[in-house]
Design goal:
12 helices; about 40% helix; binds magnesium ion; 7-stranded mixed β-sheet; alpha/beta; 7 strands; binds adenosine-5'-triphosphate
């Protein structure tokens, strides 16, 4: 059974999309089959992988209509790594879902018949805690939280933890925080070390050992329509995402032996 991981932080620009795309690429390099669901109307993961943001069918059409993930998923050029693209219509979802049945579970319901086709399904969420992210969280087995190593990074984390707890209590008891990934880390700044220490207090034993450094190559890759694995696999950002993918696989496989 595939493991569904929602990459969530309602704070904008913390590295959710960069982590979703590059982690997916390195999981596929490790021989895992991966589906990345772009649940963000900004469609940044879709364009990061070189696809047009204006495609005529994608995640929205699956969540609201007769299309299935099987039909809309695209080959990314990486082995066994598929993308369910975002389309502009997804921007209306927060309002339109309100009148739909099982509006908090549209994504969960639609993933059921393809869950077995993948080892990992990653969900890139928008920077809000609206109905789309709610769908991302109820569909997920686990949550991964990218946190930028900067002074205001911890702002909003309390609200995120509260939301996750509410979902556990009311909608999805099995939902679990997999861990926090520190992004755009620069060890030269003392501030970053303070953030790290405070995070340890917030999420004891839930911080990934693999830390993602600030790397220009990571920020250039999207404009080339490539993951960092396709753009510059020798860069330090690439190595960091490779380590993160290995750490994730290790944790998943250790878990499943329990
Ligand atoms: P949003 O909330 O808008 O969806 P996000 O959380 O998905 O944003 P990203 O789009 O991944 O964040 O990253 C924000 C910006 O920071 C992008 O321009 C990205 O290229 C850049 N970036 C992300 N991670 C790094 C990094 N480790 N080093 C340098 N730049 C980075
Ligand atoms: Mg994003």
């Amino acid at each position: 059974m595939g493991k569904v991981i929602a990459i969530v932080n309602q704070k904008g620009g913390v590295g959710k999309t960069t982590t979703s795309v590059n982690l997916a690429a390195y999981l596929s390099k490790l021989g895992k089959s991966v589906l990345l669901v772009d649940l963000d109307p900004q469609a940044n993961a879709t364009s990061h992988l070189g696809f047009d943001r204006g495609a005529d069918r994608g995640v929205y059409e699956v969540l609201t209509g007769p299309e299935s993930f099987r039909e809309v998923s695209l080959e990314t050029g990486h082995d066994n790594f598929h993308l369910a693209p975002s389309t502009p219509s997804l921007a209306g979802a927060n309002v339109e879902f309100v009148s739909l049945d099982r509006r908090e579970f549209r994504l969960y319901d639609n993933l059921l018949d393809i869950k077995n086709n993948y080892d990992y399904i990653l969900i890139d969420n928008p920077p809000s805690l609206g109905l789309l992210t709610l769908n991302g969280l109820t569909a997920a087995d686990q949550v991964m939280i990218p946190v930028q190593a900067e002074y205001f990074a911890l702002e909003g984390l309390g609200q995120l933890v509260e939301t996750i707890n509410l979902i556990k209590e009311n909608l999805k008891p099995e939902l679990d925080v997999l861990g926090v990934v520190l992004t755009m880390y620069d060890s030269r700044y003392r501030l970053a070390n303070d953030v790290l220490r405070e995070l340890y207090n917030y999420f004891p034993n839930k911080i990934f050992r693999s830390v993602i450094p600030r790397s220009v190559r990571l920020s250039e890759a999207p404009s080339h329509g490539k993951s960092i694995l396709g753009y510059d696999p020798t860069s330090k950002g690439a190595k960091a995402y490779e380590r993160l993918a290995r750490e994730l696989v290790y944790l998943s496989e250790k878990d499943s032996q329990l």
